[in-house]
Amino acid sequence: MKLKLTATILALLAGPALAQDAPTGDAAAGEKVFAKCQTCHVIANEAGEVLAGKGAKTGPNLYGLPGRTAGTYPEFKYGDSVVALGATGFAWNEADFVTYVADPAKFLQEKLGDKKAKSKMMFKLPKEEDAKNVWAFIASLAPAADAAAAPAEGEAAPASN
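Structure (tokenized):
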């Protein structure tokens, strides 16, 4: 229970709105490669509108994945290793996503320092270019950062018309 609560708190603190570097892949090419992913995953927004995929629920919804703490998508039953990774504060970024999809179990074992760590995800996407393109596609469908965010310290607020 404590582990789940910690992961939930970290997810709320980190949130998907973390600043992310611009993806290096091609979102249009990633949309084509995502056809391999949609067997298990969907990208559906908060309103439930399916933006990509066919509504599959074997894997978690990938909407808002960039910056999301691992193992925290609501109401999805993750494996213990992904939950443990999220409990460390780990949040998804392009480089880690690319490494993860190439070999999910190996990634978890290395990140957790646990040779017994495993992933429920059996599918592998070994081509780095394909993985970068899928990341770019997922990122292109992510919720927009809050455009009305307060200006950084020392910056002037935007003028209103």
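The radius of gyration is 16 Å. The chain has one domain: 2-140.
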